[in-house]
Fold:
Amino acid sequence: MAVQSAYKIHIQGLVQGVGFRPFIYRLANHHRLSGWVVNRNDGVVVKVMAGEQEVRDFISRIRAQAPGTSRITSIHWQESEAEDLSGFQIVSSQDASRGVTQISPDIAVCEHCLEDMRRQPHRINYPFINCTHCGPRFSIVRDLPYDRVNTTMAGFNMCARCKEEYHDVDDRRFHAQPIACNQCGPRYEYYQQGRLIRDMQRMMEEVGKALEKGRIVALKGIGGFHLMCDATNEKSVARLRRIKRRDARPLACMFADMETLKHYAHLEEPEQKSLSSWRRPIVLLEKKKDLAPSVTLQLNTLGAMLPYMPLHHMLFQEINLPALVMTSANISDEPLIVQNQVVHEKFGDAVDAFVFHNRPIHNRVDDSVVRVINEIERPIRRSRGYAPEPIDTGLEVDGILATGGELKNVFCLGKDQQAIMSQHIGDLQNHEVYEFYMNTIRQFLHLFRVEPRVVVSDMHPDYRSTRFARSFAGQYNRTTKARRNGHVQQLQVQHHHAHIASCMSEHGLDEKVIGIALDGSGYGDDGRVWGGEFLVCDLSGYERYTHLQYTPMPGGDKVTGEPWRMAVSYLYQAYGEGLYDLDLDFMDDMAQEDIKLLVSMVRKGIRSPVTSSTGRLFDAVAALLNVCTRARFEAEAAMRLESITREDEDASYTFELTPDGIRFVPMVREMVGELQDGVSPAVIATRFHNTLALACVAVVREIHDQTGLTKVVLSGGTFQNRYLSEALEGMLKEGAFEVYRHTRVPANDGGLALGQLAIASKMIH
Ligand code: ZN
Ligand code: ZN
Ligand code: FE
Structure:
């Protein structure tokens, strides 16, 4: 066949592991083009023997018809040498350069596969069924390019049938790397009191029976183990809590289907969309009706998800229960367990039965958590189904490693202009989590072929992520590689500046803005604990315009678990010694001496560092209203306070903008007065939220009057509060301000690393 011209097309983005090559193959055949397609670690390359107009048509078809889970970030094409080829071929993968393409997040099982489970003879009830459009991805990837040998499926030899399908371009499983069937793929095993069952049907019957009887079962999933039990059985749920030593945090539940869930929670359209998306996150919903009371413990939010593994679907066919508690298998703050042996060691005595499988989990991924605020999905924990999908920053961030915060840690790697956020790592104070952190950083540097030039961390001297940055740079700079390639530079970024920069880079903002960063705590550049910060900033620097007035935290770090301490601190500011004469419910439970001791600490300044934290203000109000005087988990007071807010309350209290910051002492006096008049805590809590929103608006107006700025960026963990976020955004928009909020990374410290990355990019360029 004589060919005059040929073109090479280079496609980048999320184009591996999502059925992209077969799609190209079919498209090329349809257009009767000869040539080839290849996966490289820097993307997919297509060569076609065609004229210019034909290539243009071909590319527009690629853009228009690409598979749903793929995401094209760029298509470059250029003329190339003609080859004498007949037909179109898929060439085996190449490890071409240091440039690397993206790794798909794990994808929930698709409808077609669920059908095949009922129809295809070799896949009847096969719980590891998958195709080019669904199944595990990131969790099984060891290396790139994404090919079976580089995944944890490498140890399973395809049978003749699977091989045939794998090589048949017209098959839905053409080049589906984790392809498997009853003959050749991974398997489940069920253990209960020394009994071992391998037969799938008997296994499902036994698991079903165990769950219906209220037993607790450990189940190996996509990214780690779950512990599960009947969510309507109070005794089981309470026992599960004891096993996990998870005092009071709400437990996530998996519901049989959307219809069932509708009985238990209010669902608007955006919530339904998130619940049924291929990412299948846990969605925080407004509770309608209780399952077992111990699932949420009086909070009005319910964390719910829908089945996403084939086995989940099989389970709900077997059992006659609306929902299962499905919580990560770990003890309090330890990392999610991924190995059969470890789950057995840790839970062998406590759990009634185990469902194991023999496909290793290479990358641990927790379930993701999202919440819909102002009709848009906001990540709270970004992990399975989301990581490691990159975020385009529009900045030159190549070679930057951002080490993140201390709690809810996520780190971030810069690759060209993309930020690759890690999955949720957790609280680095836990030793095992810290190990997981270091290993995952190593894994990401290798996987994404990044040679670090800059490592950036928080300013907090005691964060483990800060210390890691220091030792990482130190170690690297002693190597011969460093002598050859140059030293790694170490940078530090202020916590709240990083929060605002994180939200800015999600939206491609690179200019001066008004930043409101509200959270529990972050290290300030004056060495104090910040957390209610109003910044005038861009990515290069910030000016701290104002903040919540500094308030003593009697007992220092102890205040986090004991909100009543902050209540006493605020009351002392408002009433002095007169606070002893107040008749407040929450004080009834306290020993008078404890309160007196606290007051003397504040007065003398003993162990009472000051803070501008918004989280501590929430603590004070929650304790004052006797909603939460002692917190059993981080941010419990704030969550309980939000939980009792009402939609029909517009009133607010007095605050003052002073040269020392925003002063809420008048508000505290008004609240105490109302409490004594018998106004309900729900009304007061709502008025408190309104007051905080109004205070933010007042500051924004001041800044606007002085600077003319109109873009307002909101970040920090406090903005997971739906009531506050919606109220503030509404007020700002009414005032013609442009409001920017998180949609891709969490507003909490899980999004911090993205901001560190963006600021570091400006510091070095
Ligand atoms: Zn499928
Ligand atoms: Zn097979
Ligand atoms: Fe923070």
Remarks:
- The first helix runs from residue 20 to 30.
- The chain has a mean pLDDT of 94.
- The CA atoms of residues 282 and 369 lie 5 Å apart.
- The first strand starts at residue 6 and ends at 14.
